[in-house]
Amino acid sequence: MTHDEIIKALFDETLVGNAPAVLELTNRGIADGMTPGAILFDALIPALEEVGARFERGDFFVPEMLISGKAMSGALNVLRPLLAETGAETVGTFLMGTVKGDVHDIGKNLVNIMLEGAGFEVIDLGVQVPPEKFVAAIIEHKPDIVGMSAFLTTTMPMFKVNIHEITKAGLRDQVIIMVGGAPVTQEYADVVGADGFAADASTAVRIAKDLITKKRATVSA
Ligand code: B1M
């Protein structure tokens, strides 16, 4: 198979949620010298975008979204060690979670992988994280950054609730807060009082590094 054929097959098999084929094609592509980035950005992510578009049109239902998501997660497990460079110096601690009421985690996991690759220590609280769990984890781990993901317009308001609870616990000045997820915008991040927003995983890494550098410069000034 040529690389173009592998990309096309990966897209098609992710779309129909054929996890064994997606795994096999991912391994084959890597063994054949394809970059993890090409597999991710040219096949897997576009396939999930198409799944979302079909769901919106009523051509796909929740089970189809679920099996496509599982197929993508299997491939991400293969790509994880390749995307995360080893030996990078720790640049900071990043506490991450998908907000209460929301079970989407593929995008969050991808951000985690890229952060780890850039040298962050990532503490992942998982999905459906309630405000009190964010607060308890900040006290326990003392992270530099708290990251919150929301993938539904109905769960985005949890950012504000979480930030309110963090502020009420007297911890707001101690942490940088970043938000993200498919429906989130910079404007929304500003409205809820977050310090940073990113639309994708690589931008999230850049913004996280910038925010830490700025905070450390302010503290030492
Ligand atoms: Co759902 N879902 N889903 N879903 N799902 C979406 C999000 C949706 C857009 C589909 C659609 O209608 N087009 C839609 C939301 C509409 C809206 O609110 N505006 C939707 C819906 C409606 C639902 C349900 C309500 C369906 C139902 O039950 N009727 C339900 C909700 C369940 C719940 O959470 N309570 C539901 C369920 C599910 C599944 C469980 C079946 C499955 C999730 C599997 C899983 O995650 N383990 C699923 C899936 C797979 C999707 C789609 C198809 C794919 C999501 C994905 O993984 N994308 C999605 C459609 C779509 O997004 N086009 C959809 C790939 C991923 C790499 O991208 O998640 O955007 P993304 O992550 C990016 C950025 O957002 C950013 O970086 C990531 C990597 O580049 N980012 C950050 C993420 N977090 C960040 C944090 C940061 C910074 C950047 O800083 C902290």
TrEMBL record:
<dbReference type="InterPro" id="IPR036724">
    <property type="entry name" value="Cobalamin-bd_sf"/>
</dbReference>
<dbReference type="GO" id="GO:0046872">
    <property type="term" value="F:metal ion binding"/>
</dbReference>
<protein>
    <submittedName>
        <fullName>5-methyltetrahydrofolate--homocysteine methyltransferase</fullName>
    </submittedName>
</protein>
<dbReference type="GO" id="GO:0050667">
    <property type="term" value="P:homocysteine metabolic process"/>
</dbReference>
<dbReference type="GO" id="GO:0032259">
    <property type="term" value="P:methylation"/>
</dbReference>
<feature type="domain" description="B12-binding">
    <location>
        <begin position="91"/>
        <end position="221"/>
    </location>
</feature>
<keyword id="KW-0479">Metal-binding</keyword>
<comment type="similarity">
    <text>Belongs to the methylamine corrinoid protein family.</text>
</comment>
<dbReference type="InterPro" id="IPR050554">
    <property type="entry name" value="Met_Synthase/Corrinoid"/>
</dbReference>
<keyword id="KW-0489">Methyltransferase</keyword>
<dbReference type="InterPro" id="IPR006158">
    <property type="entry name" value="Cobalamin-bd"/>
</dbReference>
<dbReference type="InterPro" id="IPR036594">
    <property type="entry name" value="Meth_synthase_dom"/>
</dbReference>
<dbReference type="Pfam" id="PF02607">
    <property type="entry name" value="B12-binding_2"/>
</dbReference>
<dbReference type="InterPro" id="IPR003759">
    <property type="entry name" value="Cbl-bd_cap"/>
</dbReference>
<dbReference type="GO" id="GO:0046653">
    <property type="term" value="P:tetrahydrofolate metabolic process"/>
</dbReference>
<keyword id="KW-0808">Transferase</keyword>
<dbReference type="GO" id="GO:0031419">
    <property type="term" value="F:cobalamin binding"/>
</dbReference>
<dbReference type="GO" id="GO:0005829">
    <property type="term" value="C:cytosol"/>
</dbReference>
<dbReference type="Pfam" id="PF02310">
    <property type="entry name" value="B12-binding"/>
</dbReference>
<keyword id="KW-0170">Cobalt</keyword>
<feature type="domain" description="B12-binding N-terminal">
    <location>
        <begin position="1"/>
        <end position="91"/>
    </location>
</feature>
<dbReference type="GO" id="GO:0008705">
    <property type="term" value="F:methionine synthase activity"/>
</dbReference>
